[in-house]
């Protein structure tokens, strides 16, 4: 797989399908996670440039984690720097393979970092923010877990903010662990930031907690498991939604002539917040084949361009991320089918295929 992905990367197959990289292509067309896609792409580069290390990996002498570490030295920019400085990759391959097979993993990591530092020995002081990472994983029940890495200053800022909430709420006799109280503090920090209303505005909409629930469930008294859907896809009970509604603005959204003004006609070119909300609820993110960009990255696109007489309404709207909105204005085409699915065509008229859903919706 890694070799075939490498061949596809060199032939710019992802760009032909309107995507930016093979990592994004693998995520959209092969259902790989971002981490798995990056690993396959990186391993393909290792196979091409470090054959000895690749052979040791195939023989079970080198771990996938070590290959992934080596792949960080094989980005296009770093390969170009190596060529410019006359670095012989064969020698690098031999040294790294020996370290990977014979030495502890930490020594191997230090060796790769040393090599990278020698590529630019006189460069500027490294930007500490380059090491910042935050990965979030949503589970089937809607819960969220993650891991992060922060530079020293960024870490101090986070600790200072969280500790203020931890120390401000220490009731006598509490039994919650330190880890639980830090989790509480993180949620409270988010609550405070959202309530202050000073977060950046996303596509004309202030950052907020969104819950979609049928009116009957909201007005009822039953617990109603899995009755409401939140903005990032989590599913919660009707009871939980009612709890959130106690301190929220409740808006009615009806897909029809009796609800919010979804049809803005010809006089208004840009979608207002009512139409944008309806498009977000319908599309759920960028509709371009293979793209999973969320709603807050996306723009409302006129399927029939406004300058060509297209109206500003739900039927003539599609949610597209900035990259694919540009692609559609340069020859690509998206179209919504009667069953609600979206299809995408290249400028040459051929369709971009995506795998069928693993589970077909119930009739």
UniProtKB/TrEMBL annotation:
Gene3D superfamilies: 1.10.30.50. One of its GO terms (molecular function) is nucleic acid binding. Keywords: Endonuclease, Hydrolase, Nuclease. SMART domains: HNHc (SM00507). It holds the Pfam family DUF222. It comes from the Bacteria. Residues 274-326 form the HNH nuclease domain. InterPro entries: DUF222 (IPR003870), HNH (IPR002711), HNH_nuc (IPR003615). Belongs to the Rv1128c/1148c/1588c/1702c/1945/3466 family. This is HNH endonuclease.
């Amino acid at each position: 797989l890694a070799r075939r992905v490498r061949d596809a990367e060199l032939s710019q197959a992802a760009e032909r399908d309107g995507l930016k990289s093979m990592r994004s292509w693998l995520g959209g067309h092969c259902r790989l996670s971002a981490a798995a896609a990056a690993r396959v792409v990186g391993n393909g580069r290792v196979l091409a440039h470090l054959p000895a290390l690749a052979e040791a990996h195939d023989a079970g002498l080198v771990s996938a984690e070590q290959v992934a570490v080596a792949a960080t030295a094989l980005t296009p920019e770093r390969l170009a720097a190596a060529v410019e400085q006359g670095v012989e990759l064969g020698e690098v391959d031999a040294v790294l393979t020996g370290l990977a097979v014979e030495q502890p993993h930490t020594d191997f990591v230090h060796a790769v970092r040393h090599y990278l530092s020698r590529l630019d020995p006189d460069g500027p002081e490294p930007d500490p923010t380059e090491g910042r990472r935050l990965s979030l994983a949503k589970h089937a029940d809607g819960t969220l877990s993650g891991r992060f890495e922060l530079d020293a200053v960024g870490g101090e800022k986070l600790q200072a903010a969280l500790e203020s909430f931890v120390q401000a709420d220490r009731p006598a006799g509490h039994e919650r662990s330190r880890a639980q109280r830090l989790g509480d503090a993180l949620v409270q920090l988010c609550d405070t930031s959202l309530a202050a209303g000073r977060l950046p505005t996303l596509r004309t909409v202030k950052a907020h907690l969104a819950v979609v629930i049928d009116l009957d469930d909201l007005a009822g008294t039953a617990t109603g498991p899995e009755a409401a859907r939140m903005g990032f896809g989590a599913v919660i009970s009707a009871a939980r939604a009612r709890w959130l509604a106690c301190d929220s603005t409740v808006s009615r959204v009806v897909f029809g002539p009796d609800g919010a003004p979804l049809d803005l006609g010809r006089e208004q070119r840009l979608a207002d917040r009512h139409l944008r909300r309806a498009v977000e609820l319908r599309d759920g993110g960028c509709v371009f084949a293979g793209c999973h960009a969320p709603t807050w990255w996306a723009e409302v696109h006129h399927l029939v361009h406004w300058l060509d007489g297209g109206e500003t309404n739900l039927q003539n709207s599609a949610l597209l991320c900035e990259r694919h909105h540009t692609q559609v204005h340069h020859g690509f085409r998206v179209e919504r089918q009667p069953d609600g699915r979206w299809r995408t065509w290249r400028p040459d008229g051929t369709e971009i295929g995506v795998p069928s859903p693993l589970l077909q919706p119930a009739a």
